Amino acid sequence: MNEKKQVGTIRMNDFHTKQDFADVFTGRIMNHKPMNLYFLNDHGYNIAQKDRDYNEILNRADYLLNDGIGIKLGAKLWGVTLGENLNGTDLIPLLLRKCAENHWSVFLLGSAQHIVQTASQKLTEQLPNLMIAGTHDGYFSSDAEIVAEINQSGADILLVGMGMPLQEKFIDRNSDSLKPLARIAVGGFIDFASGVKPRAPKIMRQLNLEWLFRMVLEPRRMWKRNVVGHAQFFSKVIWLKWKHNR
């Protein structure tokens, strides 16, 4: 595992490209080394400043990758230069190709049942060799029952898409019981994979403007998160850096 770098209260990895991480991912699974993989954007960072347990969970991750231009700029204030945007929605398809090539099976957990089933169908259409071991929606009352179902499926990889911080907390508290080698918090990936939510045009993603596209689609929900949230994030990162320097 490459050395983590401090950005305020959180320590994160700084892989230069998606392929760099995909190579590490492949190596760990081939060597049967379990891993918890999470992604950090400024929204997640803000949550972690108010939720100490979540902050600790993020720092316990085997890998915590940068998602979005906000984190990249915030990290730079701490002298950490991050490379390519490693958001899950773009990275997960690359990891799934590795799964298909190596015959590693995948369990999808999250969203509504019809959405996760549609995502499973579309992913196997895109990657005919991909083995989906099972699916389950993100609404359940018993961790023990869903963990048993996941383990009985024989899945090598678990994708959990229940939103921050629920998905990371689920993985963390069940980490010792879950049998899949890789447990990945994937945010809205299941919704995007199903086609329910559209991705931003490629040019907007390349310019780190996907947040703007999503705000146009969901202005009421995303306004506070993207405008107020960005301001809160940078204020916090700058304050923590000033405090650290003192």
UniProtKB/TrEMBL annotation:
The record ties this protein, via CDD domains, to: Glyco_transf_WecG_TagA
Q: Please name the InterPro entries in this protein's record.
A: WecG_TagA_CpsF
**One matching Pfam family:** Glyco_tran_WecG
Chain segments annotated as transmembrane: none
Name the UniProt key words of this record, in alphabetical order: Glycosyltransferase, Transferase
User: Per its UniProt record, what NCBIfam families does this chain match?
Assistant: wecG_tagA_cpsF
* Name this polypeptide is given: WecB/TagA/CpsF family glycosyltransferase
State the organism's lineage: Bacteria, Bacillati, Bacillota, Bacilli, Bacillales
